[in-house]
Amino acid sequence: MTDIKSMTLPELEALLSGLGQPKFRGKQLFSWLHEKRVLSFEEMTNLPAALRERLAETCCITALETERKLVSQLDGTIKYLYRLQDGEHVESVLMRYEHGISLCISSQVGCRMGCAFCASTKAGFVRNLTASEILEQVYAAGRDTGERISSIVLMGIGEPLDNFDQVMRFLELVTDPHGLNLSHRHISLSTCGVVDRIRELAEKDLQITLSISLHATDDAARSAIMPINKRWNLEELLAACQEYTDKTHRRISYEYALISGVNDSRRQAEELAGLLKGMLCHVNLIPVNYVREAGYEKSPREKIYAFQKVLNDRGVNTTIRRTLGADINAACGQLRREAEETVLS
Ligand code: SAH
Question: Are residues 212 and 122 in the same domain?
Fold first, then answer.
């Protein structure tokens, strides 16, 4: 079955012209899929019945089944666990901020990056998501809440740059003026540091925000918790980030999860300020979320503030990420693991 929700408008036009249809049908079909966002061919009432039947025989409209939905009583954060058509699971998290709703979405089932502190990688990698499966997380949340999603972060399960082609296709579709028409500036992509792909992304010169999961300030420490650092070290990573900024003029956001006794000392704060000196950047300090298999504890509040002060005093912009959805285990990867464990046990 052809996955038509992953197709761009020119691709849909080519598909329909192959079925002997005029060009304008492509726009009609695109609009049903991405503007009205229907989930069946029957609803596409301006397409001839014979065409709808033909499409139903040969094409599928990707849909996600909501297996669990948890709503935080504290702050209205919603966590969705979706079942994909092949029975695999992914998660999305909807967060409410003053400036609007932000949706954190997954790009892969599992992850092969192996970061020591991360729940999503513990059971390994299963498969890439298709562009339509990434997109449908956004459409499904909009349908469920009836509210406009104002920003998207590719920070859920998976390494987006390890699923480069489908993620690029997703970005093209979600920003299409005939679809959701989200601005690139309201999309963040987070990576553990896949340097060759960061360069490729820079070449595309998109106005998205690139987030880099840094989490350490020297190669030995970073390699110990993030295997990707053995392939591309800090120097190579930061050089690629500088190229990204030179090309796109976008400020890079560095994620730094503070782990008690591991990366939260004053010396490490000073080193971090040194590494980022002169770069157009912002540092997001995140109290690490507890993951059973990892066993890392978050830094105490005073340590976090002290770390922040060192950076601020040296002219590095920082924010401390607020914990949202604390009552629903909203940190990524954890619901999927529970679901898999329930199936296995
Ligand atoms: N693979 C991408 C995107 C998914 S992870 C990446 O590595 O950036 C999204 C963010 O959550 C990353 O910054 C990641 O390092 C961080 N993260 C993973 N596990 C975490 C944990 N237990 N506590 C805090 N942040 C975590």
Answer: yes
DSSP letter for 160, please: G
- Ligand 1: which atom is nearest the Cα of residue 291? 22
- Average pLDDT in the 43-64 region? 97
Task: Mark whether 72 and 50 lie in a shared domain.
Answer: no
160 Cβ contact list (under 8 Å, min separation 6): 107, 108, 154, 167, 189, 190, 191
DSSP track, 91-113? EEEEEEETTEEEEE---EEE-SS
DSSP summary character for residue 186:
G
- Measured CA to CA, the distance from residue 50 to residue 115 in angstroms comes to 51
Question: What CATH number did the domain enclosing 325 receive?
Answer: 3.20.20.70
Which atom of ligand 1 approaches the CA of 154 most closely? 3
- The percent of residues above 90 in pLDDT, for the chain, comes to 90
> Are both 39 and 74 inside the same structural domain?
no
Tell me which of 115, 118, 192, 332 is the catalytic residue: 332
Q: Which residues line ligand 1 (CB under 6 A)?
A: 113, 115, 117-118, 155, 159, 190-192, 213, 255, 257, 286, 288-289, 291, 331
Q: Please give the Cα distance from 6 to 177 (Å, whole number).
A: 16
pLDDT at 341: 66
pLDDT band for position 331 (cuts 50, 70, 90):
low
| pLDDT at res. 132 | 98
Once rounded to an integer, what is the mean pLDDT over residues 185-210? 98
Tell me, in angstroms, the distance from the centre of ligand 1 to residue 194's CA.
14
| Domain identity same for 15 and 132 | no
pLDDT digit string, tens, across residues 116-173: 999 999 889 999 999 999 999 999 999 999 999 999 999 999 999 999 999 999 999 9
Kindly report the average pLDDT of the chain as a whole number: 95
Name the catalytic one among 42, 43, 91, 297: 91
Domain range holding 48? Answer: 2-60
- If residue 128 lies in a helix (H) or strand (E), which one and from where to where? strand 125-128
Look at the chain and report how many structural domains it folds into.
Answer: 2
Catalytic residue check, 91: yes
